[in-house]
TrEMBL record:
Gene3D superfamilies: 2-enoyl-CoA Hydratase, Chain A, domain 1 (3.90.226.10), Lyase 2-enoyl-coa Hydratase, Chain A, domain 2 (1.10.12.10). GO terms for molecular function: hydro-lyase activity. It comes from Mesorhizobium atlanticum. NCBIfam families: PRK08139.1. This is Enoyl-CoA hydratase domain-containing protein 3, mitochondrial. SUPFAM superfamilies: ClpP/crotonase. It comes from the Bacteria. May play a role in fatty acid biosynthesis and insulin sensitivity. The keyword Lyase applies. GO terms for biological process: fatty acid metabolic process. Keywords: Fatty acid metabolism, Lipid metabolism, Lyase, Transit peptide. Belongs to the enoyl-CoA hydratase/isomerase family. Pfam families: ECH_1.
Length: 273
């Protein structure tokens, strides 16, 4: 049976629940109905992502949520409460957006692949969370939007992740209209990988996770790092960089084992070295 713990064990209903089954670690946002990215929630997620960076027992991370909303973005009530302060909340706003930026970059730079399991609404920073993950699988009921423009707060930080996943025209359509798109449109835009019926969502996500977990973690880590690094380079620099990555990869024991297993028509035995 999978071990289930709260990030703060003394708080059974904490903002994030953590469970692990073999090499698959699951983070579940557990502050319904909104599952908002309050400072407490972001701190909990950040602490957990940081904790397992070098944990060899973790090979894949799934990010899910409880309730009908995947994540409604930042906690606007929490932020508004700080407007009464002398600086009109500036220091708190800076702290919130800095924490969010750090969290999103942690997901992208994390050595473990991260899969978003989306069932419900992902809006604003919640959409940013989905877009920051390496893969995103959604139910037919999932919806997505960047509605900040509707309330006088343009989704400027969510646009960073959004614009790195979909085309500029599609990103601007979402950002300028603030309208909600369904899962089919999100897949067409390239925001998510796959749509499945709600009753099979967990099963399909776990299958993806199991497939990735069966690979060499050394190779997956190197590949993920190289993917995001080369995406920020010019063409010539990207080829030069990935060429060096391939050479280092070829020298790894797992590459030697994998190629030998392929030639010998047998199953590889990974050592993650």
């Amino acid at each position: 049976m999978a071990e289930v713990v709260a990030i703060k064990p003394a708080v059974a209903d904490g903002p994030v629940l953590v469970s692990q089954d073999k090499g698959i670690l699951r983070f579940t946002l557990a502050s319904p109905p909104a599952n908002a990215l309050s400072l407490a929630t972001m701190a909990s997620l950040q602490a957990e992502f940081d904790r397992v960076k070098s944990d060899k027992s973790v090979r894949v991370i799934i990010l899910a949520a409880s309730g009908k909303v995947f994540c409604a973005g930042h906690d606007l009530k929490e932020m508004t409460a700080h407007r009464a302060e002398a600086d009109r909340g500036k220091a708190f706003f800076e702290k919130t957006f800095d924490a969010c930026a750090t969290l999103m970059q942690t997901i992208v730079r994390h050595p473990k692949p991260v899969i978003a399991e989306v069932d419900g609404l992902a809006t604003a920073a919640g959409l940013q969370l989905v877009a920051s993950c390496d893969l995103a699988i959604a139910s037919h009921e999932a919806t997505f939007c960047t509605p900040g423009v509707n309330i006088g707060l343009f989704c400027s930080t969510p646009m960073v992740a959004l614009s790195r996943n979909v085309s500029r025209k599609q990103a601007m359509e979402m950002l300028l209209t603030g309208e909600t798109i369904d899962a089919a449109t999100a897949k067409e835009f390239g925001l998510i990988n796959r749509i499945v019926p709600r009753e099979y969502l967990n099963q399909v996500v776990n299958k993806y996770a199991q497939t990735i977990a069966s690979k060499s973690s050394l190779v997956v880590k190197a590949g993920k790092e190289a993917f995001y690094a080369q995406a920020e380079m010019g063409l010539a620099d990207a080829y030069a960089y990935t060429g060096r990555v391939m050479v280092e990869n070829m020298l790894a024991r797992d590459a030697e084992e994998g190629i030998g297993a392929f030639i010998g028509k047998r199953k590889p035995q990974w050592t993650d070295e």
